[in-house]
Fold these 2 entries.
Entry 1:
Amino acid sequence: MVCIAAFIILALIGVFVAGISIFKPKIGKAYLKALKKAWGCLWKKVRLQKCETGFKDDVKNTLLSRVMLKHPKWVKPLSFVIEILSVVIVLVAVWAILTAIKSLLALWALGSCNVTKPSACSLGAEVCSIDESEPSNVFEATGRWFTEWGEIFEAIPDKFKTYNAGDYSFNYIEMSGGEVDGLPIAVDIFDPGCSVCMISYRNQKNAGFFDSQNVRLVPFPIQDANGEYKFKNSEIIVRYMFAIEQLRSGASLGIIERIFTGKNSEGISYQNKFNDDYTHEEAVAKIESWIREDGFDEDGIKELREIVAYPEITDKINQNKEIVENQLRVKGIPTMLIDGKRHTGLWKAED
Amino acid sequence: MREFDYLGEGEVYLDGACQSLRPRCVIDAINNYYTEHNSCGERVKYKWGIETDEKVEETRELVLKYLGLKAKKYTVSFTLNTTYGINLSLSQLKTECFDKVMTSEIEHNSPFLATMAFSERTGLPREVMKRNEDGSIPLSEYDFTRAVVVVNCASNFDGRKLLNIKELIRDVHKSGGIVIIDAAQAMAHSSDILRGVEPDAICFSAHKLYAPSLGVIVWQDELMSEMTQGFVGGGMVDDVLQNSYLLSAEGKEHRYTRFEAGLQAWGEIVGLGAALKWLMKVSKTDWKAFESNYHALYDFLSGSPKVHLVNQQANPTMSFYIDGIDSHMLGNALSRENIMARTGYFCAHYYLDHVLGLPPLMRFSLGLHNRPSDIEKVKKVMEKILH
């Protein structure tokens, strides 16, 4: 919202001057002249030179000279008000310009114009965003405004970096049959609850993406700043996936397949059911029912339940979180590392 | 005055120090030049040109007459304005004849900057002299040995005069220096200060003298020996060979061409002649009315505790600021009431801003065109604002 407000302010000024220039060229010229004068005066002041009368003074003098003749006593208080207003206008204009620059830089470097809450940026790619905590007061907001600049500048070198997918020690799910010699390695970071990841997965599957790469699927349940999972059952799904992999490599692909492509008898996608309807217990029951279908017996499921509770599974999730959030500084998923590049957002067939 | 009958009722022009209003006779003289004898002066033989030549020659004579100077000793050349005249004069001085350049603190930028540039160009040191509150220079404090002194004889913000101008010229000449007087503000209403004095050059602007836009340099012929040639070109030579030329200025008859490269503003020169004729005929009654007008306005301003006048005494030119009121805003408000007056530092930034540390000022500079009703109107509007 903040960046949109900044863009709107700048756009309004631009449209105003442009509109006037087109429909009332004389007045437009006068505005441009005033703008040039204001800029000239500002430029002088920046260089610590004197500027006898600036744009603000001209406007103030024009407005108050009328008042001076009719109500001379009002001149002083009104002058004070204009001074305050001019400071506010300058601050708002500076803020608008800086915020617009920051948002554009963030959009380019991080893929979203909103650093703290990427999902709030409508200009960015379609993603399930990894949000930071929102500032709770003005001081925090001010501090965050500056730290966001730091995050953006830190991310700029990443734009020019070559991402070798094999260099990152993710805990991942291998495609069935293992990796094929000669095919490049690609990483696909996804959250089972993320609808954009679901569409990406379908697109990738239809386009034969999984056959042309050694794709390492990295399940990553998005957490918010308070540690809560963005999609309530994503964590348990991921835990089961890692547990299944420990017993039978590639077997957890069935879980992904069903969540991303399957529907229940009512025609509702399983992703929606997991996100909106299933309680934790119902989610576990559903996953285990699928595992049974895939050939696990009751002993296997019992063993699986024990592994799901292992701290090693938590460690695997945390390791992935460290790489995603701190090493790659990913602000939203799905994110893919492919052909040395990083792709964040919906994977389209033409990609 | 009848000569300014084109001024509308309620229109008050108080910016004569920048540019005076032109009396009808001046406007008529210019119109007459364009409609009756439009021609290139000093080079054609047809009758329109001869008429122009006569009027231009007459103007040169009138300038000298107005200043009380002798044609045997002085030459009148035309330029663009005072600033141009001072720069042109300084640019032609032989550096080896002088040891330093001097000016004073209250100067308009035309001498102030020109002397600065002269010093930078020639490497001669520059000295800025103090001016007393009455406008005189404390002569004993300065050494004028081989100095080029460029000073005004009337200030453009409070009209203070160089009261010891005679003594200054005497001391400088004794010390082997020269004096160039900026008479821009003196010519219209204070030319008496120049009577009986013989500076080496006087530069002034005709447009502050009820005449059209034009500059004038009145200079002593003796100065020729201390000058090199500046601009050269059309209208300046008696003969030209492949690689040399003979300047007309070598002879007294065409000495003025020294500063007059190319075609001149003949219409404006004719207009200046008309203005001088008119000025010399202004009646005592009109001068008294003029004095009464500026005294009335000065008394009114000096009577208000909120008004801070730069002037120490009444003068047609008076500058001031008002407590708590921005002068530019005041100028804007007065303009809404059809009162035209200048605001700012009037090209005297150094003294007003940096020496006195004053805020931008308001300047009322009166002229012969002002009517008593103008003063009443200004007082009425100012009273409303000051209340």
Entry 2:
Amino acid sequence: MRKTLGFSFLLLAALLFAVERIRSRDRQIRDLRGFCAMLEQLYGILEAESPPMPELLRTLTGCVDGAAADFIRTLHASLGALGERRFRDLWRAALTANPISRDSAAARELEELGAVLGRYELETQLAALSKCLQALRREEEKARQELPAFRRLTLGLSLAAAALAGILLM
Amino acid sequence: MDSWETVRSLLPGAFVMVLNRWPEAEEIRLRLGRPPGVVIAGREITAGEEIVTQQVLLHVLERATGASLHASAPALRGGYLSFRGVRIGVCGEAVMSGERLSGLRSFTSLAIRIPHGGVPACAELIESLLAPAVNSVLIAAPPGVGKTSFLRELIRAAASRPFRVAVLDERNELSATAAGQPGFDLGQGSDVLVGVEKGRAAMMALRGLNPEIIAMDEITKPEDLQAVREIAGCGVAVFATVHGRSAEDMRRRALYRDLLSAGIFDELVTIRLRGGRRLYEREALL
């Protein structure tokens, strides 16, 4: 009875671990999608109206949600420090506070975007936005395609590890 | 924040330290690949050995535009930006949209002009322009000699009497308004319209502000001359500035010939530099 109970707990822990990993990957894909939507909005507003940065960010906060909205809110709130700090540093700090996928090409591209926005003429900014958007879309697409396999693998490995641990302990 | 403080806030730390040695500077010149220059009494001298890089120019522009260079494209097409009353002349590569100049990029140099808070040497002249009756005054000088500073003093003196003075501050250099707060005191009786093109601003002021005087900086195009005509036609005195050395010099250009022959201005004040000092001359036009 005790062995069966112990084995069940092991399986349950493995299952919870797998579910959490899968949910985390889901969240990451959702965030990537949110950032893509935010960049699309940013591109559209810049191209159509070219408003000053505070107005641009204020408009964006009402158009996006999730992690991208938190990022924009953080950035907007930090604009008061512009002058003492460069815009790219404020952008980077807001990204650090609201990260998407760490150490990915898209994350690096997104970080680099802060060095171009507001600093160069419109065409250069739009080109950088476009490049960053493509990188984020690629990453989101890749993560989405890999998700079913990731689910199976995570679940399978977790349960197999739990089973193996159970057998060894018994 | 005074003008020098404003300029300091635009510059990277290393340049601030160098330029602190020249508090009398009237202008700072930043040219790509060269050390900065400062203009004192009309003459430029090299200040320090720190080389101006593209990042330095971008740093200044980012601060001047509030990280919104894209929103400053219309000003850049005119060749300069205004930041809290400080004019920044910009050089770079043209960005064309078809046949139209849409902006500048790959910046090569910046000319940061430091406005002077007061012109105490000409207080008497200013008094005489306002008494016994207020006159329409045209102020002429070459670039960088102090037309705007003189106009600002004239406005302040008139608005402190107090006349009602509507200030058409198209480039935000006269008032240096930021977040609704003027950076320069233009006197009790001044009402400032910032960023509105002169012709439209003149109509707004005439309809809504009941001014006794309308002041504007730099008449440069026929539309500005038309605005001056409209104002004068309504019996309102005009204070304005133009680029020129003298009435004779101005008559060589069609726009200013028209301006002088329109019989609008009572007085012409010319400013010139001699031996590092500004000389003010007054001439009756009517």
